[in-house]
Amino acid sequence: MQTLFKNANLIDISSGIISNVDILVRDQKIESIARGLDEKCEIVDLNGNYVLPGFANVFCDSQKAYAQSSGNWIAQDNIKEIFDQKNALAGVVFQNDLSYTSATCLEGISEREEKELSQFSNQVAKDKSLLFLKVGQSLDELGQIDKTYKKPLSQVLEDFGFLDRKPVVVGGNCFEKDELQLFSQYECGFCITPSEDGRMARRPTNLLALKSLDFRVGIGSGYSFEVDFFAFMRQIVLTQRGLFEDVDCISEQEVLKLATINSGDILGCDLTVKEENFANFIVVRYSESIYNNIFKTLIWEKSKQDVLYTIKNGKIIQKNGEILIGLAKNYGKI
């Protein structure tokens, strides 16, 4: 099966260069990116709209998110269907939904006994599952760990072998520089959850500290049932610039890379839109802009309603707010 996406304004996330091209997708992968391609196959005219890598939702839990948003706990697959569609409408091409994947999450360490932590760590090592550590998000949590274990949280994680498991730390909002330096001695990644942090009134994660130590950093919706990566990116830019009182501390290009290429890397997928890669990209509405910078245009002027197409592994899963794959009757249009 092949599809030709004509007249795309392809954005190179690394350089900001915009190229008007045609994209030929065959058997889930991008076979060719060039101008003037002519193939006898299904043709989708993108009318000059922007094409960029799809978003990757590094950390989310649909059931907990639903329970927190509605006050109910319903362990039914229709929650997953609705959440899948929310992600598709937001331009997400990959998501790590803890309710339905083999990934493991450790939280509430202060409430666990040492024996339980040892068993948990050993089981993660045995299963070789992707480990998320939802820790270090509040000063109260860190204080309780100190009281319970007589040592800082980072040392507890090291002593019980969790840092040996190549974990992804969710949040880490309150870790100081010396603790982050300990994490940097291991193969750790970080995932920030701006929507959840805002709802819980947490202080923002220090992205400059993570950047200085070369951590892999991605973005997730966490325990939020609403998914809008454009809103997430704006919140990250605003909170970081407010934290450091410096508009130059983070660029719109950097935060877009966090939401796409970098988040994909944490989940083990290359979301770069290039030949021979899987066709995982989104089409965002073109419009005249007050900015001369495409990244400012995307971050400050766009929202999930501007995601015209979501393409995953070569298949159009969302078009103009309509879900084309899955139980569309349960969700409908935007």
Q: What does this protein structure show overall?
A:
The protein is an alpha/beta fold and 334 residues long. 34% of the residues lie in helices and 25% in strands. It has 11 helices and 16 strands. The chain has helices spanning 62-70, 77-89, 114-127, 139-149, 153-159, 177-184, 194-199, 207-212, 229-244, 252-266, 294-301, and strands at residues 2-11, 18-26, 29-34, 42-45, 50-53, 55-60, 92-97, 104-106, 131-135, 168-171, 189-192, 216-219, 281-284, 307-312, 315-319, 322-323. Strands 1, 2, 3, 4, 5, 13, 14, 15 and 16 form a 9-stranded mixed β-sheet that branches. A hairpin with a 6-residue loop joins strand 1 (2-11) and strand 2 (18-26). Helix 9 packs across helix 10. The longest helix has 16 residues, at 229-244. The protein starts with a strand and ends in an 11-residue tail after the last strand. The model is unreliable at 330-334 (pLDDT under 50).
Describe the protein's topology.
Elements: E1 2-11, E2 18-26, E3 29-34, E4 42-45, E5 50-53, E6 55-60, H1 62-70, H2 77-89, E7 92-97, E8 104-106, H3 114-127, E9 131-135, H4 139-149, H5 153-159, E10 168-171, H6 177-184, E11 189-192, H7 194-199, H8 207-212, E12 216-219, H9 229-244, H10 252-266, E13 281-284, H11 294-301, E14 307-312, E15 315-319, E16 322-323
Parallel strand pairs: 1-4, 1-5, 6-7, 8-9, 9-10, 10-11, 11-12
Antiparallel strand pairs: 1-2, 2-3, 5-13, 13-14, 14-15, 15-16
Helix pairs in contact: 9-10
